[in-house]
Design a protein that fits this description.
Helices cover about 65% and strands about 10% of the residues. A two-stranded antiparallel sheet has the order 1-2.
């Protein structure tokens, strides 16, 4: 049993070290998902939220109002 715990600890440590990355600012950070996965998930969430806003009539589509907002 003790041997299994040691193997699990080594595996976990290796996974954490492999997940470490350096951000564009030079800061070390833990990356649990890849950059592409994060971008893809963000894009999907954005599309869902825009869809909800359209269904609820909360999305501004009138050109005059859009110009004023911009």
């Amino acid at each position: 049993m003790r041997n299994r715990s040691r193997i699990a600890l080594i595996t976990l440590t290796a996974a954490l070290v492999a997940a470490c990355a350096t951000s564009p600012t030079g800061r070390k950070q833990l990356m649990l998902v890849s950059e592409q996965q994060a971008i893809s998930a963000s894009r999907q969430a954005y599309v869902q939220e825009i869809g909800k806003a359209k269904q609820q009539g909360k999305l501004v589509t009138e050109p005059r109002l859009l110009k004023r907002i911009e």
